[in-house]
Amino acid sequence: MELNILWFWIIAAMFIGYFVLDGFDFGVGMSLPFLGKDDLDRRVIINTIGPVWDLNETWVIVAGASLFAAFPEWYATMFSGFYLALLVILLALIVRGVSFEYRHQRPESVWKARFDLMIVVGSAVPALLWGVAFANVVQGVQLDAGHNYIGTFFDLLNPYALLGGLTTLLLFFTHGVVFISLKTEGDIRQRAQKLAVKAGLVTILVAASFLLWTTLVFGSVATAVFAGVAAAALIASFLANLRGSEGWAFTLMAATIAFAVLTLFASLFPDVMPASNDAANSLTIDNASSTPYTLQVMSWTALFAMPVILLYQGWTYWVLRKRVSRKTVTAAVDSAVH
């Protein structure tokens, strides 16, 4: 396999890692108004991701840096053409991170409520806009002969892209709610399981529509296979939720997101940024990639670094595998006070 093709799929794997891991972070943040009956409930919900959300978020940095190094033309076109959307995502991520750290710094309920709202917004906006961005990449955008985006911001808000954004929003929301049921005890766990079932029904309808549209209009045989696996995993996750098997439900939701991302990348291949106005202006794996020497250095670096990163992250989740409850949060607060 040529190195530029290999790195196309490595970057796909990195975005899978980001959307699976930070995806449930987004879902947890968006669930606060639905599952947080009081401040203690909300603390429990936030504590489910408290030790790992910043680690999960680093995957987008790794993916972006790899994209810049392996496909600089793709990176330049996408980040300049989608500048406003990506800036909004960045600001939302900053707002969310600040809110996690500041909401507990003062006891006033108004103070906490404002930061809780910022967590919800800072989670929902990226969840929506990532789907919009990737759907536009698959669909193709207007590029000139120099591979520069010549459309407007509102051109990106087309029906297919908005459906893609709604799909990622709902997938991440359901993924996050399932994670809460996996990581909590008592009443919150039961309410999260029920909400996951309700959200799962809507998610199946929306995601199936988006995957079908992608497969019929932009897809190939590989796209159809990946989309079919994603749909099957999503339905299986819904059934696992009905049985109260949150471990299987979470695993199958992760598989759903992984194969949905593979569906999008398979729809792209061998392009990386199709030009909707003139196919001759499209960016491909060949004309957007770095030199063979650069890709060789990156490949050796990834060969040694990625196993270490994966082992460290796996160890982190193993150490922090215990469930969170109102009792443990109250005990932690009392201990901090005394």
From TrEMBL:
Record's signal peptide: none
Coiled coil, from the record: none
Annotated keywords: Cell membrane, Electron transport, Heme, Iron, Membrane, Metal-binding, Transmembrane, Transmembrane helix, Transport
Segments crossing the lipid bilayer: 6-32, 74-95, 115-139, 159-183, 195-213, 219-240, 247-269, 297-320
Subcellular location(s) per record: Cell membrane
Main location: membrane
Membrane topology: Multi-pass membrane protein
GO CC terms of this entry: cytochrome complex; plasma membrane
A GO MF term: metal ion binding
GO biological process: aerobic electron transport chain
InterPro entries: Cyt-d_oxidase_su2
Pfam families listed in its UniProt record: Cyt_bd_oxida_II (PF02322)
Membership in a protein family: Belongs to the cytochrome ubiquinol oxidase subunit 2 family.
Protein name according to UniProt: Cytochrome d ubiquinol oxidase subunit II
